[in-house]
Amino acid sequence: MTQTQPQSILVVDDDDALRKLLIDYLGGHGLSVDGVGTATEAVQAVSNKAYSLVLLDLNLPDGDGIDLARKWRAEANISIICLTGRLEEADRVMGLELGADDYITKPFSLREVLARIRAVTRRASGAPAGEPAGERPTHSSVQVPVTRGKHPRAYRFAAWGLNLNTRRLTSPEGKPVSLTNAEFNLLAVFLGTPGRIISREQLLERTRAFDDIYDRAIDVQILRLRRKLEADAKNPKLLCTERGVGYFLNAEVEALWE
Question: Whole-model pTM?
Fold first, then answer.
């Protein structure tokens, strides 16, 4: 299947009011948007039209959104943003493992949805943030392969190393670099999803067990991490910002498994 409409969106959600709201809002921002409410309708729609991106609710009345994501990732040249409830962590993780480009938890703001669509579209077209399609990308979309039944014991990235068991960060020169609990947990999240833009809300969700990370303090922790990882924290090359959306790790990552 080939893409003929660079910003043609399909909204798949059985909530009629929400689906209409998304169609009206995104359509008002120059996107071509269709909507369906069931898995059956979604399969038919994607078969009939070359969409560039699908907003996919993972809980549909006649099928599993995870199965649709798996099917489209294998068969179609299409970007996928999963729509999930806050308590559906297992589904979110599974969706990302299957290759979904991003996920958004409900309830969400329409502005966030639009920003994430634009970010995924830029990555798919190879354009960096703030620049038109066709320019050279500024970050990778590398994903760490999942090994079922195992957990990574360490990561290597840009000549750095992070040992998850000892919680030790090693510089390219082989020197240990101390991390606070908050810095370690944030870095582990980024290394688990390299190249993927992660919002403040998602960072909070993934690190909420730790009392020293809260609300806008995420920005402070990011700055502290940059001071330890970057040659110039004011012009980061590794831990980068997607303006208005979130942060991403711009590095090839190798996972070392237990």
Answer: 0.54
